[in-house]
Amino acid sequence: MPVPLRSYGVNKQERTYTVLRDRIHSGAFGPKARLNIDALARELGVSAIPVREALRRLEAEGWVKFQPNVGAIVAPLDATAWEQQMVAVAILEGAATADAATHLRLSDLSKLRKIAAEMEVVAAEGEAVRFSRLNRRLHATIVARCGNAYLLDLLGPGDVLVSTAGPFLQVGRPIVAAAVDAGAVYLDSAGEPPFIRQVFEEFGPRAERTGAVLLTAFGYDYVPGNLAGALALQAAGPAAARVQVGYFVRGNMRRGTSAGTRASAAGVLLAAGYTFRDGRIVTERTAAHVTSFEIDGKKKEAFSIGSSEHFALPRLRPPAAGADGSPAQAALTDVGVYIGWLGHATRLVHYGSALAAPLSSMPGVLPVVDALARRIQRSRAGPGAAESFRSDVVAVARDARGAKLAAVHLTGGDPYSFTASILAWAAGKAAAEGVRAAGALGPAEAFGADALENACANAGFHREIRAQ
Fold first, then answer.
1. What is the DSSP code (8-state) at residue 186?
2. At what angle do helices 365-379 and 106-125 cross, to 10 degrees?
3. Are strands 272-277 and 280-285 parallel, antiparallel or unpaired?
4. Where do the CATH 1.10.10.10 domains begin and end in the chain?
């Protein structure tokens, strides 16, 4: 039965081309599938001429190939060409995102959150086709606000790529590699300690060689702690040798966090952690240590976790010698980062991590955790819009003996809104002004503490320095 073509265009040639192109794009005609001109003509209710013209047009676009003694086929996949195309798309869309960041409306952000939440559910269910369609909608929504009509003609080093597609350990590495190879500026919203470590230790040296800039964990995880740590070091003076950073939230964690966040947390105890101790990165289990911070006059406990502060803050305080050769500034030897989201359950997480760490090497455990994460993702896609959050981030600087020198307390609201705002600011600033140096950088190292503090204030995080 001929396919009705009235909805596809104004003439037979255009209608035929559109039908064939759509079938190739949707996968109905897979790679290397034969495209018989006579059969297609009969199916579409046209002569062979429009089909032949459409196939030649698709050949010019790279979708179709003509082979001797075979005829027209759908062009086979070329892994190298595909990888190169993805690099180009990543750079161009990253630059478009940076340009669009200042033009996005509240309605756009609401739409993007809904699409992203639906993508989490679809990804957990393994529906690749629906995920691809939602991904195109997400990108189209952002790029629609790009005001630069000539942007697609401007391809080169220094363009900005923003990645928010997680879990980053599963899908993030190719995007970082593409940014490194292209010499682009890369930002992400990762909070997974192993991925953050890979960006700094594995991709960072490569980025220095290509001129790329890698800004990982550029959201609530872990920009506020980087800022608080930098400000605490400034307030403490040259004697500061240790910094502790704590993250706390007030509100209903379950109702106020997305399913994706809860799913990532499900496997955190089995993930390898790390800290910065005695001047170097040291591998240790997540929640290996518990410490307390003062919030509004009350002591609150938090457990240790790997983050970007461990890599970024020590580089803000290299050792310096005075005129007589004596140390003018102490080197930063210890950085600890702690999560205090769970209140009285913090100690349980600490003890549980000691039991859970050996389980990660046992057969069958990781698939169970992955299944639990998928179940959590399907349970509820997004955070409750009505849930009220207060976020507290505290940094304490101490001298080499442990004496407290200064503390900085940042307060803010919803972590998700902060992440969206700070990513948009960083993308726009990097696109307009560039970044100070190449490689994997921390937020303060890339933009300076003053500019970062202003940006965080505009995004809802403000500081209070308390006298010691």
1. E
2. 140
3. antiparallel
4. 6-74
Do 19 and 4 meet the contact criterion of CB atoms below 8 Å apart? no
Residue 180 CA to residue 211 CA, distance in Å, equals: 8
> In CATH, which of 3.30.360, 3.30.310, 3.10.450, 2.60.40 is domain 225-414+452-466?
3.30.360
Question: Which pTM value belongs to this model?
Answer: 0.63
Per-residue pLDDT of the chain (468 residues; tens, 9 = 90+): 444 444 444 578 888 888 898 888 767 788 888 999 999 999 988 999 989 988 988 888 788 999 888 899 998 876 566 556 655 666 666 667 777 777 778 888 888 888 888 888 877 776 665 776 677 677 777 766 777 665 534 434 456 778 876 678 777 887 788 778 777 888 999 988 999 999 999 999 999 988 889 999 999 989 999 999 999 999 999 999 999 999 998 876 555 455 445 445 555 566 678 999 999 999 998 889 999 999 988 999 999 999 999 999 999 987 766 555 556 677 899 999 999 988 888 888 878 777 665 555 555 444 544 444 444 344 444 444 444 678 999 999 999 999 999 999 999 987 878 888 888 888 888 877 778 788 999 999 999 999 999 999 988 899 875 544
Domain with CATH 3.30.360 in the chain: 225-414+452-466
CB-count burial class (<10 Å; 0-12, 13-18, 19+) for 362: exposed
**Residue pointed to by tokens 């995880």:** 221
Token pair, residue 42, equals 């009969």
Q: Which of 234, 258, 183 is nearest to 213 (CA)?
A: 183
Q: Are 248 and 302 in contact (CB under 8 A)?
A: yes
* CATH code for the structural domain at 6-74: 1.10.10.10
> Counting beta carbons within 10 angstroms of the beta carbon of residue 283, is it exposed (0 to 12), middle (13 to 18) or buried (19 or more)?
exposed
Query: What span, in angstroms and rounded, lies between the C-alpha atoms of 207 and 185?
Result: 10
Name which of 291, 375, 298, 307 is nearest 340 in CA terms.
Answer: 291
Distance CA 340, CA 19 (A): 56
- ∠ Cα 144 150 152 (to 5°): 70
The residue to which tokens 């308390």 are assigned:
466
Angle between helix axes 128-143 and 106-125 (nearest 10 degrees) is 160
Helix (H) / strand (E) element for 124: namely: helix 106-125
DSSP notation for 334-354 = EEEEEE-TTGGGHHHHHHHHH
**Mutual orientation of helices 415-433 and 449-458 as an angle, nearest 10°?**
130
Kind and range of the H or E run holding 95 = helix 79-101
